[in-house]
Write a structure and sequence with these properties.
heterodimer, A: alpha/beta, Rossmann fold, 6-stranded parallel β-sheet, 4-stranded mixed β-sheet, 6 helices, about 25% strand, B: alpha/beta, 22 helices, 12 strands
Chain lengths: ~210, ~475
């Protein structure tokens, strides 16, 4: 008896519909008539992103590049958070000089990540249409566990990394397409009981965003 | 905590199971409420997209294209996943897939595995297989947890506990989690699930997941979810075993631009679900150290071989057809006797069973077409239903040739319709013959013998006292008299 792999592949070859030419050429012929950009102004796109984030119950604060540390401090004070995890490679100018204890994630045990008050990270791209923020494993964004285990996520989003549509984001992410990538759209939620969307299950239950106008 | 899984091989036929569901008012209220809510949200989310039809068309074309090159894409996925440190296994059927998962779990001495909701594992009864090997599977999706603790069965592919309302969930949680004071708001119940599972996430070293997409170009897996239980399972454990049907592969990373737009809007009526994870093999210092993908056929190649049925494999498991289906909305999911209920189940289940079981499912539809209209990858479900009905009849009458009762009945009908005299005689005969069967309200609720198939699920209106022809002829005579 043939091994499962050959059996399955042979069966597929025997019964599948015929392709037209090589698969790369055929792939390029797939019609993509959907919207992959927009005529909106920068400000309109940022406004849309804010709107979507508020809809998910996240708070958004705008600021200039030089004001990040101040806004971070204000948001953390408001939430009563004083011990925050940060990924390696976090820009030190984002961190308020005093009042907050920042713990750098040098492979922190999960139990330790569970005990910090929250996590502060940057992001790769944000999508206005869907209110999604995308992080990948890189300096300042960290491994996946760091934006998962803590209950509160404070994310710094630069206006220059905001796009309007999902297709624009996917094309941008293509450069890192084998890195661990996470999209998050608001705090964790579920609609499993009577289809009522409620915030906060296993992922971070609270999300704040600093929108930096660069 | 073992439960009997839904098995098309042993479930009663749909009409019988549906009758039971229809008698359960609570179930019908719950299903109606939930599907109403999702449908309304989906409608809003779809209507705000000017390019929805273009997205559907692209989705459909990507799926068609993938099936044409399926062998190549699966090999490409395997190559790239392996290169990134993943291990790819192949399983011809559910039994083989269960054996592989069990063996992998044993290799790391797992006593317990945490699971992300996966309908593929429900399809092959993986939890029972693991349990038989002494490995406890802990469901972590809220709905799947409700099902597991309630020793129940999933009734919807996206929201498996949709048939339970908050009060019922509260009772299950109170009893099984040993919580005395538990509120019944969805927030209280989600909080209970959070505390119940938190420790497991941080400590259980083995996880099992399904997959929404396998990306051939990169060898990556993509999982779309809401609660973060998925992220917990695929990030924190040492070992992750992902199980996926051969139909889950997509050509390229970029193709997600379509499905990440159509899936959340269709499935839960959201612009985007809270979390999407994409990962490739093993990443040093981030996530599991051992990563396995089990690629499973389990009759999917049989579906691929069937020219008309093939489009069933385009399905991205959004459940929109279930929410839109007037039959599903009345009966709920359990009546379908399969983890795949509703319109998609009515075509997928019989094909996965290679028509050995679930032969009544292609008839569990009024062919209204609502499912086709909402399908984000344009599966023409009514077309496949009719195709499968044809196959069921062919199979049931095999060897009977011209003698099969349905063919005989059709020939008799043809003879009657060919002659005016015979047609008139048949109408007269029908009016007389039906008399004992007509209820006081003018409807027939039961017909004898083979005709009973018609009245099993619907009433038949009695024939009128006078046909149109008779009325017209009488009217002509009257006019002649008056003139």
């Amino acid at each position: 008896m043939a091994d499962a792999r050959s059996a399955i592949l042979e069966k597929i070859r025997a019964v599948k519909p015929a392709g037209f030419g090589d698969k790369a050429t055929a792939w390029h012929q797939i019609s993509r008539g959907f919207l992959a950009g927009s005529a909106l102004s920068r400000e309109e796109i940022l406004h849309l992103l804010e709107d979507r984030l508020l809809d998910y119950d996240a708070a958004v604060e705008r600021c200039a590049p030089g004001e990040i540390a101040g806004v971070v401090k204000a948001l953390l004070d408001k939430r009563g958070k004083s011990r925050m995890a940060i990924p390696e490679g976090t820009d030190p100018t984002w961190l308020p000089a005093e009042g907050v204890d920042f713990v750098v994630d040098h492979d922190l045990p999960y139990g330790e990540l569970d005990r910090v008050d929250g996590v502060l990270t940057g992001c790769t791209v944000a999508i206005a249409d869907t209110g999604s923020i995308v992080v990948r494993n890189t300096a300042g964004q960290g491994r996946r566990a760091i934006t998962l285990v803590p209950d509160y996520h404070l994310c710094v989003v630069f206006a220059s990394s905001v796009v309007k549509t999902v297709p624009e984001a996917m094309r941008l992410l293509q450069a890192w397409n084998t890195a661990p990538i996470t999209f998050f759209s608001g705090p964790s939620a579920t609609a499993d009981i009577e289809m009522t969307r409620i915030k906060g299950v296993h992922g971070p239950r609270f999300l704040d965003v600093v929108l930096v106008l660069d | 905590m073992s439960r009997i899984p839904l098995d098309p091989a042993t479930s009663p036929a749909f009409p019988k199971a549906a009758k039971k569901s229809l008698g359960d008012q609570q179930l019908r209220r719950n299903v109606r409420h939930a599907t109403d809510v999702i449908q309304a949200k989906r409608k809003r989310m779809v209507e705000e997209r000017d390019d929805w039809q273009e997205l559907r068309e692209s989705g459909s074309q990507i799926r068609q294209h993938t099936l044409r090159y399926l062998d190549q894409y699966l090999e490409e996925f395997e190559r790239n996943c392996t290169k990134a440190g993943g291990h790819v296994h192949w399983a011809r059927d559910g039994k083989e897939a269960c054996e592989i998962v069990t063996r992998l779990a044993r290799e790391v001495s797992a006593k317990e595995v945490i699971k992300i909701k996966t309908m593929t594992s429900e399809e092959i009864h993986l939890n029972n297989a693991l349990e038989a090997a002494g490995i406890m599977a802990v469901e972590t999706d809220l709905a799947e947890l409700i099902i597991q603790l309630g020793e129940d069965q999933p009734s919807h592919i996206v929201v498996p506990a949709l048939h339970k309302n908050r009060h019922q969930v509260r009772e299950i949680f109170k009893q099984k989690m040993g919580l005395k004071d538990l509120g019944d708001t969805p927030a209280d119940l989600a909080e209970a699930a959070r505390s119940y599972l938190r420790h497991k996430f941080l400590t259980v070293p083995t996880a099992v997941s399904g997959a929404n997409y396998l990306i051939a170009e990169t060898g990556s897996v993509c999982i779309v979810e809401s609660e973060g239980n998925g992220r917990m399972c695929l990030t924190l454990p040492e070992t992750l075993i992902t199980i996926a049907g051969i139909d889950k592969v997509i050509p390229r990373f970029q193709d997600l631009e379509v499905f990440l737009q159509t899936l959340p809007r269709s499935a839960t009526g959201e612009r985007m679900n809270p979390y999407n994870s994409i990962w490739t093999g093993v990443h040093e210092g981030d996530g599991p150290k051992n990563f396995h993908v089990v690629i499973m056929d389990n009759a999917r190649t049989e579906i691929l071989a069937d020219e008309e049925g093939r489009q069933t494999l385009h399905c991205i498991r959004c459940g929109a057809c279930q929410n839109a289906c007037p039959v599903y909305r009345q009966t709920g999911g359990h009546a379908y006797g399969s983890v795949y209920a509703g319109p998609i189940g009515a075509i997928l289940t019989p094909q996965l069973q290679e028509l050995h079981h679930a032969e009544s499912l292609p008839y569990a539809s009024s062919l209204c077409g609502a499912c086709y209209e909402v399908c984000p990858v344009k599966i023409n479900i009514p077309e496949v239903l009719i195709h499968l009905r044809h196959k069921v009849v062919e199979k049931q009458t095999k060897g009977l040739g011209k003698l099969n009762p349905e063919a005989v009945a059709m020939r008799v009908m043809a003879n009657i319709f060919r002659s005016e005299a015979r047609f008139r005689a048949a109408q007269k005969f029908g009016r007389t013959a039906e008399k004992p069967l007509v209820n006081r309200d003018g409807w027939i609720g039961w017909l004898p013998g083979m005709l009973g198939g018609w009245t099993q699920a619907r009433d038949l209106q009695a024939m009128p006292d006078e046909t149109f022809r008779e009325w017209w002829e009488k009217r002509d005579k009257k006019e002649v008299r008056n003139g």
